[in-house]
Amino acid sequence: MVEFEDGHGPTNIRNVVTDSTVHYLVQIGVLNGELHLTVPPRAVAAETPLGLAEERLARSLLYQWRAEADAWDMADPEPLAVRWVHSRTALAPGAELGGRGDRVGTMAEALLGLDHRRLLILGGAGAGKTTLAVLLTLELLARRLTRGEDVPVPVMLSLESWDAERVNFHDWLAGRITEEHPGLPRVDGLHPARRLVSERRLLPVLDSLDELPEHRRTAVLGALGRQLGQEGGVVLICRTEPYRELVATQRDVLRVDSAIEALPLAPGDVASYLHRARQPSRAAQWAPLLAELRAAPDSPVSRALSTPLMVWLLRRGYERAPADPGELLDRGRFATAWQVEQHLLDRIVPASFPPLPPAPDRLHPPRRWEPDRARAWLSFLARLMNRQETAELAWWRLFGAPLPRALAAPALIVVGIALSVLIDLGLGAVGGSGHPFGFGTAVGLGVALAGLVRTAGQGWFGDETSTPRRRVNPLRFAGALRSAGRNGRLGRAWRLTVVIGGPPVILALVVLQLLAPSEEGLALVAAVLLSAYLMVALAAPSDTVDAATPDALLRSERTSVLVTLLVLAPLLAAGIGLMDWSRTHLYRYSQVDWSYPLATWCGAGATFLLLSPWSRWLLARCSLALVGRLPWPLMTFLRDAHRAGLLQRTAGTYRFRNLRLQQHLAAKAGPRSGGQEGQGGSGAAEVPAPRATPDGATTVATGPLADLTLPPASTWRGLTVRRDPDSYLLTGRVRAVMLAHWGPLGALLGLHLVRITVSGTWDRLDSWKPIVGVPALGLLVMLISLLRRRHIELHITDTFIAARTGRHRCRYEWRDVDEVAVRRVHLRGRDTPVHGIHVRPRTGAPLPPARWRGRDGWYLVQPMNVVRTLPPDLTEALAELSGGRWRP
Questions:
Q1: How far is Cα 50 from Cα 188, in angstroms, rounded to an integer?
Q2: Tens digits of per-residue pLDDT, 637-662?
Q3: Which residues of 679-707 are buried (b: 16+ CB within 10 A; e: fewer)?
Q4: Predicted TM-score (pTM) of this structure
Q5: What is the dihedral angle through the alpha carbons of 388, 392, 394, 396, rounded to the nearest 10 degrees?
Q6: Listed residue (681, 614, 579) closest to 265, CA to CA
Q7: Model confidence pLDDT, tens digit, residues 225-242
């Protein structure tokens, strides 16, 4: 600020800096008088273990989201001046918070001043909701780390990974912190995530609510309303229309302190921003467009550039010569705002991968990608993500594409046969009696032992072993044991018993084998136990603070495969060798044939290799690259797409920067009606939602059975329905199909394929009989289960809901029930493919026996079907007789 006196020179100069996190401030000039410098206090390192963990988490998040902001050009040259106003959509009668996107500090101050720190961010597609959330996250982190303010640590997460019907919100939040930041300092020997969550030291910033299917949006919003508690803060991000539909139909609405909604960008503000962001050498090319924005706010290009997404697409698409932004003024080509938007979306991929040579002085310069092929690759990924109904791009899920799954069994057979040839040559070179007839049994034994070791790892960590995670450093075994003990699925007593008592037991077995050679099986038992022990230790998550990246997860999987090949498989072979050595003493053989342990090592190593997530990734990458669906250096391509701003990186997965971009690349975005053109960017394709058919039946679009429509239950064979104004009674005898056995049978088939191919017995007809017999056995079990007819009964009145399945009965009074919904049946600790009617009892209500207990406080009433859809007459009865408790 400069003050003048009598029109002469300045008498007082003051520099006022607001809403900033600068580290250095430099002023050049002549100093007259005194200099006053005020430095904000820096955060002091916390002295308590929990405070130290909180600070390290904040620093890790700051580095992560600062890199994302740089990749998205959020503050280059400055944030867009998006105007945010109070929204009445969210039924938030509290504080009327608002502000501008280029003044985030003021909005962060207002957020911290709210009673419960609950803020809802609304807006159309591409309106800058996620950008504002990232800037708020960075501002809060900077206030804590550089200014010493006691503010909660903002944790920005996508709701894509939260199954609100199965997992409590606080458990999910603590689990994500534990998974992405496993190396935070321990508090009382435990990971601090649960303490941070329970003590309200975190501020969840939740994105992608509108990208979930309709039934999941309802479950998420209802769970947040019930589970946040009175003091739980949250920042929730959603598009306006989906949220308006949710609050209009749902009883449990999340109560927020304030809700803000983005206004369309003013053409004059867009022109000013582009004037500052453009390159000075291209001022002449930008001048006509900037003049059009200032002079014609209702023109197609002005209406199209009403969202930050479109402004970013324009800037990135026309920042380099010879691209001319003036072509957007051609009314013959761009008569509507939708045509301008489609053109900008079409240009973003070629503009992100320009045919320019990389700078030679860069350590890791981006590669040159052909724009047309890059667009084809991104389009394939977008279509695959749509087919999998997810917004997260994970490299290990590429195996779910049709081609890799179809090639899985043939590739396993071909690679197994190739390995058998190499094993035959290697064993022949060491002087063995030859493969496969002499050592096929040893190779098969190695396969079986490796299968047991893999089963031990899956039993310790649960099904999560199929999802890649960062592994510990294999050279730091003590840390590996601590991590395995902390993250095991077993109870604390069992974990301590195994971790502490495992080594003495294994050592005792080895000593007994050496002292008593006649007990030839002790060495093999010790080798299996030691291998399983090491498998559990080496599969534990690593103790690093920073969130995992996709490349880090892939490197970890490669390391895991190498460790199993070079450590675990040789241990199993050593067990066979010791057992063979004991036989030389027992049967007085002349010498030990070491080719048998080598054959065992080959069989175990082949099993670890062929059944690992890394091998599935390798198959998916190679097969899709051979047909041109993806590039060979896929991870390099994804890194360059992230640097170009097309993708964002969240922990170990990628996401498209905006759902509109994903749908456009997947060829799902279509023309909009004239009434939508003025919204400029609101044409993103919707996630499939429940719909009604002309005959009154309902269907929910989820998975491959999304289009299945169930007829009324009264028309089902074997069922009788009696409907009165105050009751609904369904009785009959039905047949249930058993499906749970297919998982173990599939695992056994995979191991058998590895055994017959690697052991060299693939040319024998008898070896292939189990390939046909095991599926036939599975089908036989299904047919036998169909022969049994069970009596079922479902009785719904305006006072209770009761059910009977065979000999088992249950009954719930409506006065003891909070809500009723269709959920996946949870049986014996695992989810089944069957859906059923569940109720959530009130606190203190009488509960049925444990066999009816589901997840997260839900209890089963009646299993129904493999799809989430209910017959329309049953849906109507639940809606009318449950007293408003029904959650469709």
A1: 9
A2: 998 888 888 888 876 788 888 888 88
A3: bbbbbbbebbebeeeeeebbbbbbeeebe
A4: 0.70
A5: -30
A6: 681
A7: 888 877 788 999 988 888
